Amino acid sequence: MTEIGYYPGCALHGSSNDYETSARACLAALGVQLREVTDWVCCGATAAHALNHKLSVALPARNLALAEHDGFREILAPCPMCSMELLKARQEILADEALRAEMSSLVELELRGGVNVLNLVQALQSAGIDRIKAAVKKPLDGIRAACYYGCLLTRPPGVVRFDDPEQPRSMEAIVGALGAKTVDWNYRTECCGAGLTMANEETVLELSHRILTNAAAHGANCVVTVCPMCHVNLDMKQADIERRFNAKHKMAIYYLSDLVGLALGLSEKELGIDRHFVART
Amino acid sequence: MIDAATSGEATAVPADLPAFLDLENCYQCGKCTAGCPVAERMDVVPNQLVRLAQLGLVERARRAESIWQCVSCQTCSTRCPKSVDCAAVIDALRQLSFEKGDAAGSQRRTVLFQEAFLRNIRRNGRLNELELVGVFKTKAFLDDLSIPFLFKDAMLAPRMRAKGKLHFKPDRVKDGGVLERMFDRCLRQA
Ligand code: SF4
Ligand code: SF4
Question: For chain A, is the Cβ count within 10 Å smaller at the N or the C terminus?
């Protein structure tokens, strides 16, 4: 077992606890244990960067400092918004010594900026795609997955430095290794409306409806994501989308770790899939 | 050609926006707006917001509804051929609008939501979703007296509970004092 640091973020400790179950179970099956960053705090999310710039650096900076103090060199932040915010703060701190010093005193912990932040795709890549492929017990031959990257997993590219922001392929590579088919479709990097579910539901329902419609039009029987907010909007709100647009989607929404876990022989319950709203296709 | 950065002259960024925004680089190609998923809902689209800011018409820009319709997806900033961080321009406008308390009326709910979110983190360190829903709905109701909005999503609660997705025990940080001080320092400096 190797151990890596883990920054769950609020969603995975809240209503997206199915994602935490899934990520933990899937990575454990690959020999990776997650250890939580001590006393982590919220990354600030959109609220911080929309209302107060300094807070949007300070909140992630506090978490980076906590992770350093725990002795981690790498932490997994499965939520793409958290990992983007952590990486952005790290980049700003590393580029500006005065800011680093200021932030160290502001967050009351010495901060060097040495901790790297991984998203879930990267955590699976470093576990090894060949290793995943070799460990497959139940190939997912009935699956035709629309890999959905959404907004912040690949953007802004200068901050997250991950895959291609226009034509990413990293999720397809993993899903393909599980014996599943992936479809080509147009909404892979379009935004679902993210955390505005409650504040601006109309926008979220419309953007999410387009995503589900396009995935189905290209022959997908499920959508795969690594983002808790995408999952809320596409899965939990799917009934509302159907009502609003008088449409039937019945599209199963999986976390990438769900599919890897299923192929490795884990059960739906072990992966938290029984907590999804739309039943499996 | 005058290169503001090397000549040491004042940049073209208006005084109330952060200097790192490099607004002078924008040549109004419209690519930011072309890829924006919510442009069709906007009164003032992203390239127009950048143009207003570039011209120093910051007040007009910050009163636009669109700055609160932006879903912060970073498509505009990613695609800009002149590396203008359009999403950061919008953030700067939102911060100003929040400071001045003059967000467009139709977008008050989004502002109230973000404000309730920040207060929630300040109190708990980590988001307490139930408290957020309660506080946000109450504030939004006091603001616009919409009863349907107050009870919207109420039907979701029992389903979420059945799925084990509602938590009545808040997940709080142990060292809440440091958060309080961090918030004080950041908001004071704002
Ligand atoms: S894409 Fe860039 S250069 Fe083009 S209009 Fe938008 S901000 Fe200006
Ligand atoms: S960040 Fe905002 S303005 Fe830019 S493309 Fe996304 S929604 Fe549009």
Answer: N
Per-residue model confidence (pLDDT) at position B166: 66
Unique residue bearing structure tokens 């300094």? A54
Distance A63 CA to ligand 1 centre (A): 34
Average pLDDT over chain B, rounded to an integer: 83
Question: What is the tally of structural domains in chain A?
Answer: 2
The shortest CB-CB distance from B167 to any of A14, A42, A194 is to: A14
- Indicate which CATH number applies to the domain containing A200: 3.40.50.11810
In whole angstroms, what is the distance from residue A107 CA to residue A96 CA?
A: 16
What domain range is A101 assigned to? 2-120
Task: Report whether CATH 1.10.1060.10 matches the domain B4-99.
Answer: yes
B21, B28, B77: residue to mutate for ligand 1 pocket, most atoms within 8 A of CB: B28
Q: How many C-beta atoms surround the C-beta of residue B81 within 10 A?
A: 11
- A60-95 residue pLDDT tens: 999 999 999 999 999 999 999 999 999 999 999 999
Residues of chain B contacting residue A149, judged by C-beta atoms under 8 Å apart: none
Query: Mind listing the pLDDT tens digit for each residue in A125-175?
Result: 999 999 999 999 999 999 999 999 999 999 999 999 999 999 999 999 999
Q: Is A164 on the interface with B (CB under 8 A)?
A: no
CATH of the domain at A96: 1.20.1050.140
Asked if A152 and B91 come within 8 Å (Cβ–Cβ), the reply is: no
- In-domain check, residue A265: yes
- Are A142 and A267 part of one and the same domain? yes
Q: Quick one: how many helices (H) and strands (E) in chain B?
A: 12, 0
Q: What is the pTM of this model?
A: 0.92
| The two structure tokens encoding residue B153 | 């999503």
In chain B, CATH 1.10.1060.10 sits at 4-99
Q: Specify the long-range contacts of residues B152-158, CB closer than 8 Å, at least 24 apart.
A: B152/A201, B153/A198, B156/A236
Q: What is the pLDDT of residues A238-257, one digit of tens each?
A: 999 999 999 999 999 999 99
Instruction: Give the number of other CB atoms < 10 A from CB of residue A130.
Output: 9
